[in-house]
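During the no-cost extension, the postdoctoral fellow (Dr. R.K.) reprocessed legacy sequence entries with the updated structure-token encoder. One reprocessed record is reproduced below for audit purposes.
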Amino acid sequence: MRRERLTPRPQGLRDAVGRLDAGLDEHARRQLAASIGEEYRARYGEVPLGFFARCYLGPPYVDHMLNLFQVIVRHFAPSDPVPEPFSGARMLVRSGGYAFVEVYSGGLLLPVLDDGTVVRP
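Re-encoded structure tokens follow.
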């Protein structure tokens, strides 16, 4: 694994990932996703497929998937199946210990703590 992938995520990037699910219109969401992708490419050398995170909409939703390429924001109830490769991130997110989990095309999952620390898989 490339060492730069484990570099802590700055507050601005963590905030941007959180805003993907903040009720933005489609155009604004696409712009934000492009900006996040550019920052990942420049800082860490690779762009994740997307993110899996806690959902704060309330019942019945408990978590959601954010996809940077098609800018899909999909919410899941506890019994809803989560598609691969995002399904492995679900239990990590439900533990409550992570701000979000980065999901990469090869199946790599990188949990990110609220303070930006990236947890080694």
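The longest strand covers residues 50-54. The helical segments are 11-19, 26-44, 87-94. The remaining legacy entries will be reprocessed before the final report is submitted.
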